[in-house]
Design goal:
397 residues, alpha+beta, Beta Polymerase, domain 2, Serum Albumin, Chain A, Domain 1, seven-stranded mixed β-sheet, two-stranded antiparallel ribbon, elongated, binds adenosine-5'-triphosphate, binds magnesium ion, nucleotide-binding, RNA-binding, transferase, CCA-adding_enz_firmicutes
Length: 397
């Protein structure tokens, strides 16, 4: 789903015609001014959620308490949020009170950084009370208002500051640096899943080296799971950016093999999908290191959707590998899955009629699979049968 600026402007017009003020806000405005590809387009409006629902026919109330609804319009989705401020963050997580306000200016003042605190009206005029445009051209991440106060309200903003610095290849201001340095410990109040989202974007950013360096020098690593206990991980700098936690874990496990995948997944509260991917990448890496090249067995075992990911990890670790390496080896594969094996379990059972069924069957099939994939054996029934007939009868169990 590609964001459509055209539809966003039409949506603004609809709200304006119904008598409500509305603006495109946040990241989309920043990316338009930068000429960078946009993520989602967020809209802020003077209309209440009820009023937005009366203007559009497809509206999903996704965060009514925070004034947010999802508007489905011209086949695109937009988050539309009523102008609001946030007051009091006693639990460091949620504002105690969300107050609707009557001006875009006040709405912009609750936002984290000047470059994220701009709005655009339907004529394309930019409303920029905190001089975000100037900071975009100076390439700095500056807090809206006092950085200490803003990070105290919501400590996640410290991670966001570094993540934007990495993504945009910007610097953070001295004030932001000081505020992070002094208050990094407040990250303890933030759910690890939310920190993970920002950290993942940080290591995937073009400026990841600077991002990692900032985490180190500003004391942020002391509050990130696993990194906090391993100085060696804090100073390891991958030679290539890493896309997502599966890659990240695979890279960092090479630095400190004593930390199990299980621990990474548990401490960072990662999903089973990430765990499975990290496991596949790790076995591929083990195979790669054993043979010092992309092997047929590796190409056969690694799920295709992880191939690009695996190449990235190899590069991050400093292995000289071509990006076509996987595809080149893949095309040489005699089979692509066990179903294509010309000799199946039932054939193996027939070959040893006197043996009880047991784990010898699956290990036998795996030997055949390995021999065929690595081209020591032709994928022809007769060839395999001949080979199997030379086996000593496997020990029964
Ligand atoms: P991306 O392109 O990565 O989505 P973004 O700037 O759109 O970047 P979001 O996390 O989608 O970032 O947030 C949208 C906007 O909401 C931000 O631009 C900012 O104005 C505001 N915002 C988000 N999180 C915070 C926060 N923790 N504190 C203050 N403002 C925030
Ligand atoms: Mg966004």
């Amino acid at each position: 789903h590609k964001p459509s600026l055209h539809s966003a402007f039409n949506l603004l017009s609809c709200l304006e015609e119904a008598g409500y003020e509305s603006h495109i806000v946040g990241g989309a405005v920043r990316d338009i001014v930068l000429g960078r590809p946009m993520g989602d387009i967020d809209i802020a409006t003077s209309a209440t959620p009820q009023q937005v629902m009366s203007v559009f026919s497809h509206v999903i109330p996704i965060g009514i308490d925070h004034g947010t609804v999802m508007v489905r319009y011209q086949s695109h989705s937009f988050e539309v949020t009523t102008y609001r401020t946030e007051e009091g963050y006693t639990d460091f997580r949620h504002p105690d009170e969300v107050a609707f306000v009557n001006s875009i200016r006040k709405d912009l003042s609750r936002r984290d950084f000047t470059i994220n605190a701009m709005a655009m009206n339907q004529n394309g005029d930019v409303i920029d009370p905190f001089h975000g445009k100037k900071d975009l051209s100076k390439r700095v991440i500056r807090a809206v208002g006092d950085a200490h106060t803003r990070f105290n309200e919501d400590p996640l903003r410290m991670m966001r500051a570094i993540r934007f610095a990495s993504q945009l290849q910007f610097e953070v201001t001295e004030e932001v640096k000081q505020a992070i340095y002094n208050q990094a410990s407040l990250l303890n109040h933030i759910a690890v899943e939310r920190i993970a989202v920002e950290f993942e974007k940080l290591v995937a950013g073009k400026g990841y080296q600077n991002g990692i360096h900032l985490c180190d020098t500003l004391g942020v690593f002391s509050y990130l799971p696993i990194f906090s206990a391993h100085r060696s991980l804090q100073v390891a700098v991958p030679r290539q950016k890493l896309f997502g936690f599966a890659q990240l874990i695979t890279y960092y496990r090479e630095q400190t093999p004593t930390i199990s995948l299980q621990k990474w997944v548990k401490d960072w509260k990662l999903s089973n999908r990430v765990k499975r991917e990290a496991l596949s990448l790790h076995s591929a890496l083990t195979e790669y290191k054993q043979h010092d090249e992309m092997t047929l067995w590796l190409a056969y075992q690694l799920p295709e959707h992880l191939a690009a990911s695996f190449i990235q990890v190899l590069k991050a670790l400093g292995y000289p590998v071509k990006k076509e390496a996987f595809t080149e080896v893949s095309t040489l594969l005699p089979i692509h899955s066990i179903d294509e094996l010309a000799f199946q379990a039932r054939d193996l059972i027939k070959a040893f009629p006197n043996l009880e069924k047991g784990s010898w069957i699956s290990s036998g099939i795996e030997s055949i699979e390995y021999a065929v994939v690595t081209k020591q054996l032709n994928n022809k029934y007769e060839h395999i049968k001949e080979w199997v007939d030379q086996w000593n009868p496997p020990a029964s169990n």
